[in-house]
UniProtKB/TrEMBL annotation:
Catalyzes the dismutation of two molecules of 6,7-dimethyl-8-ribityllumazine, resulting in the formation of riboflavin and 5-amino-6-(D-ribitylamino)uracil. Homotrimer. InterPro entries: ATP_synth_asu-like_sf, Lumazine-bd, Lumazine-bd_dom, Riboflavin_synthase-like_b-brl. GO terms for molecular function: riboflavin synthase activity. Its EC number is 2.5.1.9. The keyword Transport does not apply. Pathway: Cofactor biosynthesis; riboflavin biosynthesis; riboflavin from 2-hydroxy-3-oxobutyl phosphate and 5-amino-6-(D-ribitylamino)uracil: step 2/2. It comes from Streptomyces malaysiensis. This is Riboflavin synthase. Residues 1-100, 101-197 form the Lumazine-binding domain. One of its GO terms (biological process) is riboflavin biosynthetic process. It is an enzyme of class 2 (transferase). It catalyses: 2 6,7-dimethyl-8-(1-D-ribityl)lumazine + H(+) = 5-amino-6-(D-ribitylamino)uracil + riboflavin. The lineage of its organism: Bacteria, Bacillati, Actinomycetota, Actinomycetes, Kitasatosporales.
Amino acid sequence: MFTGIVEELGEIVAIEHLGDASRFQVRGPVVTEGAKHGDSIAVNGVCLTVVDITEDAEGTRFSADVMAETLNRSSLSALDIGSRVNLERPMALGGRLGGHIVQGHVDGTGTIVDRKLSEHWEIVKISLPAELSRYVVEKGSITVDGISLTVVDAGPDYFTVSLIPTTLALTTLGVKQAGDPVNLEVDVLAKYVERLLGRDNGTQEKEITA
Protein backbone atom coordinates (compact mmCIF):
# COMPACT_ATOMS: atom_id res chain seq x y z
CA MET A 1 0.00 0.00 0.00
CA PHE A 2 1.15 3.53 -0.81
CA THR A 3 0.06 6.97 0.34
CA GLY A 4 0.53 9.10 -2.77
CA ILE A 5 3.34 11.13 -1.23
CA VAL A 6 6.11 11.14 -3.84
CA GLU A 7 9.55 10.51 -2.36
CA GLU A 8 11.67 11.51 -5.34
CA LEU A 9 11.73 12.23 -9.04
CA GLY A 10 13.40 9.32 -10.78
CA GLU A 11 14.56 8.92 -14.36
CA ILE A 12 14.04 6.20 -16.94
CA VAL A 13 17.55 5.20 -17.98
CA ALA A 14 16.82 2.16 -20.17
CA ILE A 15 13.87 0.31 -21.72
CA GLU A 16 14.11 -3.21 -23.07
CA HIS A 17 11.15 -4.28 -25.22
CA LEU A 18 10.35 -7.96 -24.77
CA GLY A 19 7.46 -8.51 -27.18
CA ASP A 20 4.50 -8.75 -24.81
CA ALA A 21 6.29 -6.89 -22.01
CA SER A 22 9.03 -4.35 -21.31
CA ARG A 23 11.79 -4.09 -18.73
CA PHE A 24 12.36 -0.60 -17.35
CA GLN A 25 15.50 0.55 -15.61
CA VAL A 26 14.78 3.48 -13.30
CA ARG A 27 17.31 5.61 -11.45
CA GLY A 28 16.16 6.45 -7.92
CA PRO A 29 18.75 6.55 -5.12
CA VAL A 30 16.19 7.32 -2.40
CA VAL A 31 13.67 4.55 -3.11
CA THR A 32 16.37 1.96 -3.80
CA GLU A 33 18.00 2.44 -0.40
CA GLY A 34 17.59 -0.92 1.31
CA ALA A 35 15.46 -2.26 -1.57
CA LYS A 36 15.87 -5.84 -2.75
CA HIS A 37 14.54 -8.26 -5.32
CA GLY A 38 10.76 -8.69 -4.97
CA ASP A 39 10.10 -5.35 -3.26
CA SER A 40 7.47 -2.96 -4.61
CA ILE A 41 8.03 0.58 -5.87
CA ALA A 42 5.35 2.81 -7.37
CA VAL A 43 6.38 4.41 -10.68
CA ASN A 44 3.98 7.18 -11.70
CA GLY A 45 1.39 5.49 -9.54
CA VAL A 46 1.90 1.97 -10.92
CA CYS A 47 3.03 -0.65 -8.40
CA LEU A 48 6.01 -2.49 -9.93
CA THR A 49 8.13 -5.32 -8.57
CA VAL A 50 11.87 -4.83 -8.29
CA VAL A 51 13.79 -7.38 -10.39
CA ASP A 52 17.29 -6.23 -9.48
CA ILE A 53 19.31 -3.32 -8.12
CA THR A 54 22.46 -2.04 -9.80
CA GLU A 55 24.85 0.83 -9.26
CA ASP A 56 26.89 2.93 -11.66
CA ALA A 57 28.80 6.20 -11.59
CA GLU A 58 25.54 8.17 -11.80
CA GLY A 59 23.74 6.43 -8.94
CA THR A 60 21.56 3.47 -8.06
CA ARG A 61 18.94 2.09 -10.41
CA PHE A 62 16.37 -0.68 -10.26
CA SER A 63 14.81 -2.85 -12.96
CA ALA A 64 11.15 -3.78 -13.18
CA ASP A 65 9.17 -5.84 -15.68
CA VAL A 66 5.97 -4.30 -17.07
CA MET A 67 3.52 -6.68 -18.73
CA ALA A 68 1.35 -5.79 -21.73
CA GLU A 69 -1.78 -5.37 -19.57
CA THR A 70 -0.06 -2.64 -17.56
CA LEU A 71 1.36 -0.96 -20.65
CA ASN A 72 -2.10 -0.94 -22.27
CA ARG A 73 -3.91 0.43 -19.21
CA SER A 74 -1.41 3.02 -18.02
CA SER A 75 0.71 5.83 -19.39
CA LEU A 76 3.94 3.88 -18.82
CA SER A 77 3.89 3.00 -22.53
CA ALA A 78 4.44 6.70 -23.30
CA LEU A 79 7.68 6.85 -21.30
CA ASP A 80 11.04 7.08 -23.02
CA ILE A 81 14.67 7.14 -21.94
CA GLY A 82 15.19 10.34 -19.99
CA SER A 83 11.56 10.62 -18.85
CA ARG A 84 11.15 11.77 -15.25
CA VAL A 85 8.87 9.66 -13.06
CA ASN A 86 7.34 9.90 -9.59
CA LEU A 87 8.67 7.25 -7.19
CA GLU A 88 7.34 6.02 -3.86
CA ARG A 89 8.10 3.04 -1.64
CA PRO A 90 5.25 1.22 0.14
CA MET A 91 4.21 2.68 3.48
CA ALA A 92 5.82 0.95 6.45
CA LEU A 93 3.46 -0.63 8.97
CA GLY A 94 2.77 2.00 11.61
CA GLY A 95 3.92 4.83 9.34
CA ARG A 96 2.10 8.10 8.77
CA LEU A 97 -0.67 8.10 6.16
CA GLY A 98 0.24 11.47 4.70
CA GLY A 99 -1.97 11.23 1.63
CA HIS A 100 -4.69 8.60 1.29
CA ILE A 101 -4.87 4.84 0.69
CA VAL A 102 -3.26 4.18 -2.70
CA GLN A 103 -2.96 0.65 -4.09
CA GLY A 104 -0.79 1.34 -7.11
CA HIS A 105 -3.49 -0.21 -9.35
CA VAL A 106 -4.26 2.26 -12.13
CA ASP A 107 -7.96 2.54 -13.01
CA GLY A 108 -7.41 4.43 -16.25
CA THR A 109 -5.60 7.29 -17.88
CA GLY A 110 -6.53 10.93 -18.25
CA THR A 111 -5.09 13.84 -20.17
CA ILE A 112 -4.03 17.24 -18.94
CA VAL A 113 -6.52 19.63 -20.55
CA ASP A 114 -5.50 23.01 -19.21
CA ARG A 115 -3.25 24.75 -16.67
CA LYS A 116 -4.07 28.09 -15.07
CA LEU A 117 -1.37 29.96 -13.22
CA SER A 118 -2.04 31.83 -10.00
CA GLU A 119 0.32 33.76 -7.77
CA HIS A 120 1.02 30.91 -5.34
CA TRP A 121 -0.53 27.82 -6.92
CA GLU A 122 -1.74 26.37 -10.19
CA ILE A 123 -5.10 24.92 -11.21
CA VAL A 124 -4.83 21.88 -13.50
CA LYS A 125 -7.79 20.45 -15.40
CA ILE A 126 -7.58 16.75 -16.23
CA SER A 127 -9.90 14.63 -18.34
CA LEU A 128 -10.99 11.22 -17.11
CA PRO A 129 -12.94 8.27 -18.54
CA ALA A 130 -16.67 8.71 -18.03
CA GLU A 131 -16.92 5.38 -16.16
CA LEU A 132 -14.63 6.73 -13.44
CA SER A 133 -16.44 10.02 -12.89
CA ARG A 134 -18.86 8.50 -10.34
CA TYR A 135 -15.92 7.88 -7.99
CA VAL A 136 -14.63 11.47 -8.14
CA VAL A 137 -16.22 14.04 -5.86
CA GLU A 138 -15.45 17.59 -4.85
CA LYS A 139 -12.93 17.65 -1.97
CA GLY A 140 -12.40 13.92 -2.35
CA SER A 141 -9.08 12.22 -3.04
CA ILE A 142 -7.63 11.03 -6.34
CA THR A 143 -4.22 9.79 -7.38
CA VAL A 144 -2.63 11.38 -10.45
CA ASP A 145 0.65 9.81 -11.60
CA GLY A 146 1.07 8.47 -8.07
CA ILE A 147 0.38 11.83 -6.38
CA SER A 148 -2.35 12.05 -3.76
CA LEU A 149 -4.40 15.13 -4.62
CA THR A 150 -7.64 16.77 -3.47
CA VAL A 151 -10.32 17.31 -6.10
CA VAL A 152 -11.33 20.96 -6.46
CA ASP A 153 -14.09 20.54 -9.04
CA ALA A 154 -15.61 17.36 -10.47
CA GLY A 155 -17.38 17.25 -13.83
CA PRO A 156 -18.86 14.44 -15.95
CA ASP A 157 -15.59 13.84 -17.81
CA TYR A 158 -13.02 15.97 -16.02
CA PHE A 159 -11.79 17.18 -12.64
CA THR A 160 -9.49 19.93 -11.42
CA VAL A 161 -6.78 19.96 -8.79
CA SER A 162 -4.86 22.81 -7.17
CA LEU A 163 -1.09 22.35 -7.03
CA ILE A 164 1.09 24.06 -4.46
CA PRO A 165 4.70 25.07 -5.27
CA THR A 166 6.09 21.98 -3.50
CA THR A 167 4.06 19.64 -5.70
CA LEU A 168 5.09 21.56 -8.80
CA ALA A 169 8.76 21.41 -7.84
CA LEU A 170 8.99 17.80 -6.67
CA THR A 171 6.72 15.86 -9.05
CA THR A 172 6.16 15.36 -12.76
CA LEU A 173 3.09 17.60 -12.65
CA GLY A 174 5.46 20.55 -12.52
CA VAL A 175 6.53 19.92 -16.11
CA LYS A 176 3.66 18.12 -17.81
CA GLN A 177 1.70 20.16 -20.31
CA ALA A 178 -1.72 20.09 -22.00
CA GLY A 179 -2.08 16.89 -23.98
CA ASP A 180 0.19 14.82 -21.76
CA PRO A 181 -1.28 11.55 -20.38
CA VAL A 182 -1.46 10.78 -16.66
CA ASN A 183 -2.31 7.67 -14.64
CA LEU A 184 -5.44 7.83 -12.51
CA GLU A 185 -6.40 5.78 -9.47
CA VAL A 186 -9.71 6.64 -7.82
CA ASP A 187 -10.35 6.24 -4.11
CA VAL A 188 -10.66 2.49 -3.48
CA LEU A 189 -13.08 3.14 -0.60
CA ALA A 190 -15.59 4.57 -3.07
CA LYS A 191 -15.43 1.39 -5.14
CA TYR A 192 -15.98 -0.82 -2.11
CA VAL A 193 -18.96 1.28 -0.99
CA GLU A 194 -20.50 1.03 -4.46
CA ARG A 195 -20.03 -2.73 -4.49
CA LEU A 196 -21.51 -3.21 -1.04
CA LEU A 197 -24.51 -1.00 -1.76
CA GLY A 198 -25.09 -2.88 -4.99
CA ARG A 199 -25.16 -6.20 -3.14
CA ASP A 200 -27.54 -4.83 -0.52
CA ASN A 201 -29.90 -3.52 -3.18
CA GLY A 202 -29.81 -6.86 -4.96
CA THR A 203 -30.65 -8.72 -1.75
CA GLN A 204 -33.48 -6.38 -0.89
CA GLU A 205 -34.97 -6.70 -4.35
CA LYS A 206 -34.96 -10.52 -4.09
CA GLU A 207 -36.62 -10.44 -0.69
CA ILE A 208 -39.32 -8.06 -1.90
CA THR A 209 -39.95 -10.15 -5.02
CA ALA A 210 -40.22 -13.33 -2.96
